Amino acid sequence: MAASWLALLLLGIAVPVAPAAAEDGYDLWLRYAPVHESRLAGYRAHATELVVPADTATARATRDELARGLRGLLGQAPATAARARRDGAVVVGTPASSPQLAALKLDLSGLGEEGYLVRSVRIDGRPATVVVANSDVGALYGAFHFLRLIQTAQPLAALDIREAPRTQVRVLNHWDNLDRYVERGYAGESIWDWHRLPDWKDPRYTDYARANASIGINGTVLNNVNTSAQALTPAYLEKTAALAEVFRPFGIKVYLSARFSAPIEIGGLETADPLDPAVRRWWKAKAEEIYRTIPDFGGFLVKANSEGQPGPQDYGRSHADGANMLAEALAPHGGIVMWRAFVYSHEEPDDRAKQAYNEFVPFDGQFHDRVLVQVKNGAIDFQPREPFHPLFGAMPKTPLMMEFQITKEYLGFATHLAYKGTLYEEVLRADTQVRGPGSTVARVIDGTLEAGEPGRSPLTGMAGVANIGVDRNWSGSHFDQANWFAFGRLAWDPYLEAQAIAEEWVKMTFTTDPAFVGPVVAMMMGSREAVVDYMTPLGLHHLMGRGHHYGPGPWVAGGPRADWTSVYYHRADDKGIGFDRSVNGSDAVAQYAPPVAAQFGDIDAVPEEFLLWFHHVPWDHRMASGRTLWDELVLRYGRGVDYVKGMRSTWDGLAGHVDPERHAQVAAFLAIQEKEAQWWRDASIAYFQTFSKRPLPAGQAAPPHSLEYYESLQFPFAPGDGK
Ligand code: BDP
């Protein structure tokens, strides 16, 4: 051994001083790696003693997390004590649990059940840090914040932090089937081991809860929106109850997707008509049964009358009739209904983008006050870029909940590095203008825009379609963990900046070394735009492979419905390309507030990133750059590929800063991404050139294969396809 090392040394090959611990990503952003030695003494002085006086399950989880975190970060866990006695104690809890905290008489008003203070104070004349809340869960959130300060190399002196979530329902939506298949999942099977539940509670469930609580997520919908009614049978409710028990100390409620026709399938009724008294009785009894099993059950998520799912319209009833029936069953127990607005009917509309608005706006004000309408960020479907959904701002009397997709169904699955924090931020900051400038989507979601609307339900929320599976790194790739993290942080506070969130995540997940953080954050910040460029530049959308959505498929045509094809969306012909949603076309622009409609509807005023979303544009149209549309399109595709090349070289240069395991996987995935970005570019250009009939701009390489070749590629086993 020694001899071979010597040989390596003689050859000039670097020999590691000590082998780094294997890093597989399992620890996520709760990695608690040792802080830089220059900061160690300072931090230790602020964490000499750990006081978490309450003895509830939540307080125990809080104490365990702080002990684990501080041990990892500072090399030693502080002594635990019942009350603070030394300089530098950390005291965590509620005033009710601690006379020392009560004596501080801190102002906890306005923090609600989930907010907290993190303050530098003096206790009995000695310096201390306190994390104080109105509830144990608030204190747990505060404890994670305290740990995050150390993880991100922030000072611990003179702390005066006051935080409360701006939305109430902050949930993950798992599109997980009961057979563990995950629809649009790219991280392996479902983590819910239904078959072995309720008796075997995988320790992974606890780590899942810790990770979610650390970013403020307080609920999880366990099963797919395309669900089987089986999820509501007694056997599965018992399994769900076992998960609820694991999650409860972490402030996380369980929810289930409910199949609208369950009264027929598992109830033996002949109808699921929401106005039928027997159906209503069935749901009431089902709710009672659920709450007997799970007393703090969160409620139902429902996909109805969408993509073939059953719903109230099957009986000539409305979305409001359906949602309200379920809300009436759940309300006595404190549950809610999240009713999805992702609908489109069997009859193809002139423009699918218009359908949700048309179906929901007439019912504004008619929903039960325990109903939230859950709206995807854009009107089509989680595309790399979409303008904000026109429903935001259009239903002032109804709480609208944001639905973001964390899993990257349309952004390269788990192998493409695409940070979605910038996508979320762009949507949340979009200005609906419904009540004048500054009527942002974030203000619709947090309820502040319409707070004065009489009789409006005060519920608020945000949902993220999870990217979690049994892969060791949870999300299918190391960088996809950032999207889960960013979703949680933005659900807590939709006004946070994507860049600040990326910085936090990089520091917590890899290292606080600025030589690493700077370039990696920069790389992340442009990564989603790169995907837009190499897949669907300038407002193009829905051009991916049929069914599985893997790779380019701009030629996809025919089949069961036009609005499942690409040609429906890009409408390329020898004159130009793009979907005319202006007043001359489908007039979808009219669903926006007048100033927005005027901007989007005007080919000269619309932001270029939405040009082909709203207009059918001649190939020779002059762009802001002075180039023709065709030339610009080709350059954008290439720009996306170049960005990925840049990410590869940045990452290669950072090898010394990252453990070899994670470095190697990210590097390999970036190589896949480059190959696939090139494929998207080449296939798209080969296809669209058959319409534009124009040469490529100077210096742009012709696609290496024929269009027939790209069209012939088949991927029957691509992951995540809907079943
Ligand atoms: C689409 C997915 C499909 C989902 C559907 C939904 O392709 O698998 O079932 O959305 O959100 O994005 O219901």
From TrEMBL:
<feature type="domain" description="Alpha glucuronidase N-terminal">
    <location>
        <begin position="28"/>
        <end position="146"/>
    </location>
</feature>
<dbReference type="GO" id="GO:2000886">
    <property type="term" value="P:glucuronoxylan catabolic process"/>
</dbReference>
<dbReference type="InterPro" id="IPR011099">
    <property type="entry name" value="Glyco_hydro_67_C"/>
</dbReference>
<feature type="active site" description="Proton donor">
    <location>
        <position position="307"/>
    </location>
</feature>
<keyword id="KW-0732">Signal</keyword>
<feature type="signal peptide">
    <location>
        <begin position="1"/>
        <end position="20"/>
    </location>
</feature>
<feature type="domain" description="Glycosyl hydrolase family 67 C-terminal">
    <location>
        <begin position="476"/>
        <end position="700"/>
    </location>
</feature>
<keyword id="KW-0378">Hydrolase</keyword>
<comment type="similarity">
    <text>Belongs to the glycosyl hydrolase 67 family.</text>
</comment>
<dbReference type="InterPro" id="IPR029018">
    <property type="entry name" value="Hex-like_dom2"/>
</dbReference>
<dbReference type="Pfam" id="PF07477">
    <property type="entry name" value="Glyco_hydro_67C"/>
</dbReference>
<keyword id="KW-0858">Xylan degradation</keyword>
<dbReference type="InterPro" id="IPR011395">
    <property type="entry name" value="Glyco_hydro_67_aGlcAse"/>
</dbReference>
<feature type="active site" description="Proton acceptor">
    <location>
        <position position="381"/>
    </location>
</feature>
<dbReference type="InterPro" id="IPR037054">
    <property type="entry name" value="A-glucoronidase_C_sf"/>
</dbReference>
<keyword id="KW-0624">Polysaccharide degradation</keyword>
<dbReference type="Pfam" id="PF07488">
    <property type="entry name" value="Glyco_hydro_67M"/>
</dbReference>
<dbReference type="GO" id="GO:0046559">
    <property type="term" value="F:alpha-glucuronidase activity"/>
</dbReference>
<feature type="active site" description="Proton acceptor">
    <location>
        <position position="409"/>
    </location>
</feature>
<dbReference type="InterPro" id="IPR005154">
    <property type="entry name" value="Glyco_hydro_67_aGlcAse_N"/>
</dbReference>
<dbReference type="Pfam" id="PF03648">
    <property type="entry name" value="Glyco_hydro_67N"/>
</dbReference>
<protein>
    <recommendedName>
        <fullName>Xylan alpha-1,2-glucuronidase</fullName>
        <ecNumber>3.2.1.131</ecNumber>
    </recommendedName>
</protein>
<comment type="subunit">
    <text>Homodimer.</text>
</comment>
<dbReference type="GO" id="GO:0033939">
    <property type="term" value="F:xylan alpha-1,2-glucuronosidase activity"/>
</dbReference>
<keyword id="KW-0119">Carbohydrate metabolism</keyword>
<dbReference type="InterPro" id="IPR011100">
    <property type="entry name" value="Glyco_hydro_67_cat"/>
</dbReference>
<dbReference type="GO" id="GO:0005576">
    <property type="term" value="C:extracellular region"/>
</dbReference>
<feature type="domain" description="Glycosyl hydrolase family 67 catalytic">
    <location>
        <begin position="150"/>
        <end position="474"/>
    </location>
</feature>
<keyword id="KW-0326">Glycosidase</keyword>
<dbReference type="InterPro" id="IPR017853">
    <property type="entry name" value="GH"/>
</dbReference>
